[in-house]
Design a protein that fits this description.
Number of domains: 4
Strand content: 15-25%
Radius of gyration: 27 Å
Mean pLDDT: 92
Structural class: alpha/beta
CATH superfamily of the largest domain: Nucleoside phosphorylase/phosphoribosyltransferase catalytic domain
Shape: globular
Number of helices: 19
Oligomer: single chain
Length: 536
């Protein structure tokens, strides 16, 4: 029989004394009794978080303080929320429920909600361990992700976890565990057929709409490629934003399966499904902090590939000035991680390091990018978009074993010339509710236009990805499908004073004026400079 000070493990790697276990048990029993009912006061405001407001006096009487977690029960629904307190916003016996929380609980003003105390989540202890530089076990990482999905962890706690991974690093076993936990946080696509392929670009390059060319090529070759893509965060358009110009992108996992089985390919918005759901929650925290720790980046990408059943994956890693990764050594290290960790997850991965020093394609913005895509799929279009897409698609064909080593690019280019790729794209568009007979000239382009010309002669030395994206976004992209920038020049071109550099399109005169002001700030097209500095 254990003495009162004996210790054991709770299954999550924490040593707990018998005395501490008994204290926790008594506290849980006490809290079960400390349930009380409050009347809903619905607040017409969305916070994007599970937050409720309790009357300050009510909270004190029930031993609840700001930042505490409570379990809310309304009819058959339950929700974990973080508490704020106020002496004025809500009266005694009331609970302030923001509209997004009310929607989840199906609660309306004057409804009754039961409030139950909650123990502090175990994940907080594991987050502290990561901040201290310790490695976490698979069980501990799984606990953090499960509590994340139950909304038991606050944004501050999640930000601390991400900061810990960023500053302390994350090992290979931890990355595998995080990937698997993210996959388990949502649904999985099980096609029951194969081979299943996928591709991903780590981002940072304006335009670069290769996915919309690669998917129909690969699908036309008889390979299944259910592509779930993101919307823009800082760029002028994400793949989902651009594809939305041609067809619907909002589908559930059953609909994705149906489309993919029919056409071998699909291009949908990943946020519309419950695939790798924890990743979207982590991204929301990572983005404002501009933190992209390598292990978390790997887990984020590979979880989504694993969740759709992909066994063959091409990873595009652009490098160069203005891209996310600046040099070859860092790109090679990241590419090697993808290959090694992917192998442990049962995937065959090829990492392709590409030139990301300037935009790919002429169009930057949803409608303009779609115009490039259609033209490439019909045998023409911008040569850089066509060549890069054929390269990526060709390597996937080789990876799967559809063609021999070194033959993939030629086969991909043939599919662009003979119309098979466009035929497959038209099929996908139709299955996703769009017009399969769409033409490039049918696409929405903003009615307000301004042409930017060169102020002097010279050779173009750089076209800045970030600057072009900023200008396109200020012009209205991606919300305005016709807004964006159309490039007439590429790096290395020689121009004379007055030559056209790019056009800006907007759907309102005001947005066009704002975009013109942004040109003066960002100056995205740089001419070669001979004098870099002086000293005396």
């Amino acid at each position: 029989m254990e003495s009162s000070n004996s210790k054991n493990h709770n299954g999550n790697g924490i040593v707990i004394s018998q005395e501490e276990k008994e204290k926790r048990k008594k506290k849980e029993e006490l809290w079960k009794k400390q349930r009380y009912i409050c009347q809903v006061k619905k607040i017409d405001l969305k916070t994007g978080k599970n937050i409720v407001v309790l009357n300050e006096q009510d909270a004190k009487e029930n031993d609840i303080y700001a930042g505490y977690r409570v379990n809310l029960k309304h009819k058959e629904r339950e929700l974990v929320a973080i508490v704020d307190v106020s002496s004025e916003m809500v009266g005694k016996g009331e609970i302030g429920v923001f509209s997004d929380v009310a929607s989840k609980l199906h609660a309306e003003t004057d409804d009754l909600i039961q409030i139950v105390h909650m123990e502090k989540p175990l994940g907080i202890e594991f987050i502290k361990r990561k901040l201290d530089g310790e490695s976490l076990t698979s069980t501990q990482i799984t606990t953090i992700i499960q509590e994340l999905m139950r909304n038991q962890l606050s944004e501050i706690e999640l930000a601390s976890f991400i900061s810990g991974v960023y500053t302390r690093g994350i090992g290979e076993d931890e990355t595998i565990a995080l990937t698997e936990a993210i996959v388990d946080s949502g649904e999985r696509l099980e096609l029951g057929v194969g081979p299943v392929a996928d591709k991903h670009c780590i981002g940072g390059v304006a335009g670069n709409r290769t996915t919309m060319v690669v998917v129909p090529i690969v699908a036309a070759a008889g390979i299944y490629i259910p592509k779930s893509s993101s919307r823009a965060i800082t760029s002028a358009a994400g793949t989902a934003d651009s594809m939305e110009v041609l067809a619907d992108v909002n589908f559930n996992i059953a609909e994705l399966k149906e489309i993919t089985l029919k056409a071998h390919g699909a291009m949908i918005w990943g946020g519309g499904m419950n695939i790798a759901a924890a990743d979207d929650k982590l991204i929301k925290i990572r983005h404002p902090l501009s933190l992209d720790p390598r292990g978390m980046l790997l887990a984020s990408i590979l979880a989504k590939k694993s969740a759709v059943g992909a066994k063959y994956v091409a990873i595009d890693i652009p490098i160069g000035r203005g891209a996310k990764i600046l040099d070859m050594p860092k790109a090679e290290a990241l590419g090697g991680d993808f290959i090694h960790i992917g192998k442990r997850l049962g995937m065959t991965i090829e990492s392709l390091i590409t030139d990301g020093s300037e935009p790919v394609g002429n169009g930057i913005g949803c409608g303009l990018e779609c115009r490039d895509v259609i033209e490439v799929l019909q045998g023409g279009g911008p040569s850089d978009l066509r060549n890069k897409s054929a390269l990526l698609a060709g390597r996937l064909l080789e990876l799967v074993g559809k063609v021999g080593e070194g033959e993939g690019r030629d086969v991909a280019e043939l599919m662009l010339r003979n119309g098979k790729a466009w035929g497959k794209m038209a099929e996908i568009i139709e299955l996703q509710g769009g017009n399969p007979k769409v033409k490039a000239d049918d696409l929405p382009i903003g009615q307000y236009k301004h042409t930017v010309t060169s102020s002097r002669g010279g050779k173009i030395s750089h076209i800045d990805n970030k600057g072009i994206n900023k200008i396109a976004r200020i012009a209205g992209a991606p919300q305005d499908k016709g807004a964006g920038v159309f490039l007439h020049r590429v790096k290395g071109d020689r121009v004379k004073e007055g030559d056209v550099l790019f056009d800006i399109y907007a759907e309102s005169e005001t947005k066009l004026e704002f975009a013109l002001k942004a040109v003066d700030v960002w100056q995205p097209v740089e001419l070669e400079k001979f004098l870099l500095g002086t000293m005396r």
